[in-house]
């Protein structure tokens, strides 16, 4: 399926049903279809051909998301550009992808002016909320355009530039169709879904729209990430499905209005993109409801490597299955997951190694980077870079990112285990654990902690609390209390920024 086929499928169920809603205003499936067709025709008139790459640079916005379907209807390839990237990184991505067109939101005009002259392939630049520019663009298209997908390539997603030049992940229509099928078979969908998108549509929140649209559901788009507004929207729109990374869920749990908000419409509250504290997850199951649903994936194998439906958080007797809350669920039905050692040999149950995956969820490769593609698919498996194990019941436990493991005094310490111990402290809102160079230990385990509003606690008290739970070797030798932690565009804590701040 092309990306636009999810829209057209929803429209076939009820063309007059609300499709995209923002700021209390809704546009129907028929209206989104019509505009996507005009966008496709306009792109064709500007010389965009099937297989060409077209970028979108925008915050959450219904017109920007409609452009995704226009790009797909033209047979072109969607390249989401993160609006919070620095100009240099976006310039690199647009150049790497070879984008011929860029559709952007007016607040990002200064960034576009800064980079457009350096992009040799870019021939069309359109601001969709500049009425004159946008109307001129749309009026330029005359013939209806509904082109087949080119080579099944649907989108190219940048991975970020933390380890050098950014890479572009090539995702096909088959990859996203697999992800959509896994979503629909793994989680509850009763009636017509209403999906609330607070997280950026350039990331997980965007691709989770496709299964909702295939069911004729409504997507409520939040322009800015405000937790209070999020809770208001869940109640007012009778939201059935939503997604947040753990750090934002912690903010929801800390919000004064949570317990007074009607959340009874929720069927599925997805969490993912980073490990979630089991203690906070148990709190969410009690206070938000038995609707929490985990997903584990990555850009290269989107969203659904493993899944844990709401029911899987509970034992048959209805009690919370505390022993599972630290897991990432079970491998999804259309993915084969294994644990691999450094030599390429597969590990047995409970043995720790790199999580590897096979199946139609896995990307086609890295754009114009055969060496990186070959490295990621060594031994015939896609390598996630995550360290973990499978238990006897086939639950997947992720113990760390390979790059985040701390080697201190000759011992391997997984930062996730230390973070989970710290998060059990009642005064802690969030935390991050890294390794810093140390003359004695090689690396010292270092924790940066954000406290709950109005709480105070000494670093020594946190250290003693952790030592009682996981022992002296894993207890941070340096504990910093910060008012807030640096976060990425999707709410992940940026350990590289913490490391840069604390490095001598």
UniProtKB/TrEMBL annotation:
Residue ranges of domain AMP-binding enzyme C-terminal in the record: 417-492
Cross-referenced SUPFAM superfamilies: Acetyl-CoA synthetase-like (SSF56801)
InterPro entries membership: AMP-bd_C, AMP-bd_C_sf, AMP-binding_CS, AMP-dep_synth/lig_dom, ANL_N_sf, ATP-dep_AMP-bd_enzyme
UniProt keyword list: Ligase
GO molecular function (one): ligase activity, forming carbon-sulfur bonds
Residue span, AMP-dependent synthetase/ligase domain: 10-367
PANTHER family documented for this protein: LONG-CHAIN-FATTY-ACID--COA LIGASE, MEDIUM_LONG-CHAIN-FATTY-ACID--COA LIGASE FADD8
Family to which this protein belongs: Belongs to the ATP-dependent AMP-binding enzyme family.
Protein name: AMP-dependent acyl-CoA synthetase
Species this protein is from: Virgisporangium ochraceum
